[in-house]
Structures are given as structure tokens and as C-alpha cells.
Amino acid sequence: MLKKICLGLAIVGLLQFTSADAAVVVVSEGIYETGIIGRDFTRIRTKDGVDTIETNDATIIAQNNIDNDFGVYNGDNVTYTHQLGWAGLSGGSFTSAALEIAAFGVTGSDDDVFIGVNLDQFVGTLTNGEWYTAFFSISTFDLTVHLALLNDFTLEVLIDKNGFLGGPSTIFTSTLTATYETGNVPEPASIAVWSALAAIGGVVTWRKRKMLHAA
């Protein structure tokens, strides 16, 4: 009888032993500098569609290591850091990421973008804008081949303006968006079935030993 029960549970277990769907989390951090006179920062952090908004300039500048040239119309380089540690991600890995930068005054194809701890990983050049939009442009960089740089949940960014070849540019928006996926885990139903099988297996072994001793 126990053998039949074990066989039945084994079949059910094989049918149900599927992994739960991997949990996919989409997170983003957008840094915006919209001040016309003086600096005026806003930061929007989003996790699974829920926004957390910060407007304190000092907090944003300190937490994101924003230098004095972010949002300033000049020819100096810009450095800052995107942070994703606030999202509480663990037990998985990043599967995709993209960096979007918006700027005015992009005209000379000379605004190179670098990322990484040493700011030496070249990802592209800001797209030129048009004169009738004050040379405004939005540039998006696919970071799929650089996902290892996000392992510490930070992304250091350098925009090298390379002098005044195309005129000064103003970096006023940067947004990092990433997809994080956790590993598969067994379904609770599967765990219960295989736990029952283990228990019954123990009973069968005990009965066999008892019968041998009796003989």
C-alpha cells in the first residue's frame, strides 16, 4: 500500500515540481536640474511603478555625488553617480539597463560619455540637437554589456565635453533604468509533495528494518 502511495505522490511531484516564475523588478533613478537662476534639483526614484520624489538640493547633490557643472551652461566636464541601493534588491542579477541623458547646446559631436568606477568605459557620444530647439537632445545608451558595473548598485558617470569645439552644453537630466531578476525557487506545492515522499520513504525503510529484525 505504501509503495502505491509513494508512486502516486512521485507522479504528482514530478508534475508539480516547477519553479516559481522569476521575480522581475524594474527600477529607475532620474536626476533633474531645472533651475533658471541658481540650481533646482529634483530626483525621482521608481520601483515597480511607485515613485519616491526628493527635492532637497543638498541631499541630492550629496547622495548622487553631483559636481558643480551638472546643469550649468559651460564647457567643463560633468560627473555624478546613479544609486540603486535604495531599491533593496538581492538574490538575483541585472538583466538590462539603459542610461538616458538630456541636454541643451549639444552641437559638436564631442560630448563623450564614460561610466564605471574609473570612469573609463566609453558608452557613446551625446546626440547633436537642432538649432531651433537650442540644440536640445536626448541620448539613450544601452548598458547591457556593462551590467557588471552595476553589481554594487551604483553607476558612476562622466560626460567629457572635450572643450568648446561645438559650444558649451547643459546637462540637465540623467535617468538610469534597470531590470533586476531574482533566481527561481520551487513552488510551495512541490516542496510539500517531496517532503511527504521523504517522510513516507522513512516509514518504508523503518518497516523493512523491523521485518528483518523480526526474522
Overview of this protein structure:
- By secondary structure, the protein is an alpha+beta fold.
- It has two domains: 2-19 and 187-214; 24-182, Jelly Rolls, CATH 2.60.120.
- 23% of the residues lie in helices and 35% in strands.
- The protein has three helices and ten strands, in the order αβββαβββββββα.
- Strands 3-2-1-10-5-8 form a six-stranded antiparallel sheet, with helices on one face. It has a four-stranded antiparallel sheet with strand order 4-9-6-7, with no helix packed on it.
- It starts with a helix and ends with a helix.
Provide a compact summary of the structure.
With 215 residues, the chain is an alpha+beta fold. The protein has helices spanning 2-16, 57-63, 188-214, and strands spanning 24-33, 41-47, 50-54, 78-83, 92-104, 112-115, 121-125, 137-142, 154-160, 170-182.
